[in-house]
Specification:
- This protein has 578 residues and is mainly β.
- The longest helix has 6 residues.
- The chain has 1 helix and 47 strands.
- A 12-stranded antiparallel barrel has the order 34-37-38-39-40-41-42-43-44-45-46-47. A 6-stranded mixed beta sheet has the order 3-4-5-22-16-19.
């Protein structure tokens, strides 16, 4: 049997008289679903164990002074004194809704806030309305030689939900709006029909169908039914780890999602079916996690190889694989026009899945002909939220250039590999697409190294514990002007990265640029040309991974030889891995 107490009241002069009335709803078949009981303008409805009480908003506000609601209509002290004719009066009408329309006796007077002077004494029908709000109708008075000030509080044309959710709970409105846990209080909801779904860990979902009316409060008392234990997902954050890294770089997060509390067993097995690590995990929330850093149950680092992560629970068995390798995973890198790479060359390696790199670089550049050329400032972002897919953005400011002081580019790269020895060595390959633009040309009309135009790239490489060797071929449309007409560049490159240690890298690269449809100057004539040896680029870089602050420090020296001019660029950068 459900029992509830409702309070109803009436106003008599300035005194409020409250009366309490107790009512009961029998727990019988005729009231279990969609049965409504009306008591003192409150409607009580029961839906599958959930009790909904619909009340008038004003009544609810009067009974809940702690919520801080204002009454709809009240007289305020006059804000100013004016000279009023002996047989006339004045009123000031203010409203919480700016520009609300004001009518007296059906005649439009203006928009609030509104001051009406020389108003004949008497009683007037006041109507205040605004689109999206519930209109107000009432009476106001005016007396000889007096000024009155009135305030109207319009309610939005919405209803309100009032309920309390326990911890580890959330709710959806029409399957779209997700609200925070541990919520309570009033929530506005548009007028109309809505489906509200309540979720609480360890209990079955609760569904309430409401036809919401304006200026009504719907107090919901939820009836929860316990949920049977069930696993909904099992994931690992990384499929490749190196135990020699420290902190977040070596941690693999094992995640288990469930609908109700329960106990699961996690074990890690080598290729000989030997259990090297095991843990019991008590589930107490929607998602429970376990960190594994590539060590066995005694804390010793596992040898390189492939390991199976197994999860077992009542009626649930699942597994996945994680490779333990000795090669660098979080290698130092540059953010190029088309993703991670070396210098200006995108390479067949990337950021581990689920990570983001934020980078900053400063690159003073000197020309052999004109001396100081510019001091570019670069900001870049690269991420790999999806397996085998990497995206990047790069923005460079050129403060010394007269035209086109900002260059921006975006790129997407796809990566694939054939591992040998369970990922310790692999053959990598991939492709990339990119586009960059700028107001004017950099090293005009040459711009392939600085991401002007639409670029495509194919890349291959051998990735081992102590080195990476790769080659990349790029074709860039509109490398000088970004307009995709003529001035195209074909750039072929080779890269060698040597790892003196797990945390350092020494990189070398070389590129040859062949151009087609570019402009050349021969005395007073301008002609189209093809130049297979348009520009040459080579460089060297040193990088160091700093695990304590999850970042990579990088220093490089790049030389670009173009049109009998040589550009020297010294680059200092820092990439933060999140």
């Amino acid at each position: 049997m459900f029992s509830a107490v409702l309070c109803c009241f009436s106003l008599s002069g300035e005194n409020e008289i409250f009366a309490q009335q107790e009512f009961q709803i029998e727990n019988s078949a005729d009231v279990l679903l969609d049965k409504q009981v009306v008591i003192d303008d409150s409607i009580v409805e029961r839906q599958s164990g959930n009790v909904i009480v619909e009340r008038d908003y004003n009544s609810f506000a009067e009974k809940s002074p702690s919520l801080g609601f204002s009454s709809d209509f009240k007289e305020k002290k006059a804000e100013r004194t004016v000279e009023i004719a002996r047989k006339s009066s004045a009123v000031r009408i203010d409203c919480n809704a700016q520009d609300a329309e004001v009518y007296l006796n059906g005649e439009y007077q203006g928009k609030a806030p509104l001051y009406i002077s020389n108003l004949a004494p008497g009683v007037y029908r006041l109507n205040v309305r605004k689109e999206g709000y519930v209109g107000y109708k009432g009476l106001l008075r005016s007396d000889f030689g007096k000024e009155y000030s009135y305030y109207v509080n319009l309610l939005k044309a919405t209803g309100y939900l009032n309920f309390v959710l326990p911890e580890k709970s959330y709710f959806l409105v029409d399957g779209q709006h997700v609200y925070e846990t541990d919520v309570s209080g009033l929530y506005e909801i548009p007028v109309g029909k809505h489906r509200i779904e309540f979720f609480r860990y360890g209990y079955k979902p609760n569904v309430v169908d409401l036809k919401v009316r304006s200026a009504r409060v719907y107090e919901i008392e939820l009836g929860w039914i316990e949920q049977d234990f069930k696993i909904t997902s099992f994931t690992v954050s990384k499929n490749c780890i190196n135990p020699l890294y420290k902190g977040k770089f070596s941690n693999c997060v094992i995640g288990v999602s469930s609908l109700a509390p329960g106990k699961v067993f996690v074990s890690i097995v080598d290729m000989n079916n030997n259990v090297v690590y095991k843990r019991d995990l008590q589930l107490s929330d929607w998602l429970c996690t376990l960190n594994w850093d590539g060590t066995d149950s005694d804390g010793f680092a596992m040898v390189p190889g492939r390991y199976e992560v197994r999860l077992s629970a009542d009626g649930f068995e699942k597994s996945c694989f994680v490779d333990i390798v000795s090669k660098p995973i979080y290698r130092p890198f540059d953010i190029t026009v088309a993703g991670t790479g070396v210098g200006s060359i995108p390479c067949a390696f990337g950021i581990p899945s689920g990570n983001v790199s934020l980078g900053f670089a400063l690159s003073p550049t000197i020309s052999s002909v004109q001396g100081f050329y510019d001091l570019p400032v670069e900001i870049n972002v690269a991420c790999s939220f999806f397996k085998n897919i990497e995206a990047c953005f790069r923005g460079i400011i050129y403060p010394a250039l007269d035209d086109g002081s900002f260059c921006a580019s975006i790129g997407v790269k796809g990566l694939f590999s054939f591992p040998f020895d369970y990922g310790d060595k692999s053959f990598n390959y991939g492709f990339a697409l990119s586009y960059g633009g700028m107001g004017g040309g950099i090293y005009e009309p040459y711009g392939a190294a600085k991401n002007l135009g639409l670029g495509t790239a194919l890349m291959v490489g051998f990735d081992g514990p102590n080195c990476f060797a790769g080659a990349t071929s790029q074709f860039v449309f509109g490398s000088g002007s970004s307009n995709l007409v003529g001035d195209n560049t074909w750039k072929n490159s080779v890269v060698l990265c040597v790892y003196p240690s797990l945390f350092t890298s020494l990189d070398f690269w070389f590129s040859k640029h062949s151009c087609f449809g570019v402009y050349d100057w021969d005395e007073d004539k301008v002609r189209l040309c093809e130049d297979w040896n348009r520009a040459f680029e080579w460089g060297v870089a040193f990088s160091a991974l700093i695990p304590d602050i999850s970042s990579v420090f990088r220093m490089s020296y790049d030389i670009l030889m173009y049109n009998e001019n040589v550009y020297h660029e010294i680059k200092l950068g820092l990439n933060l891995i999140i």
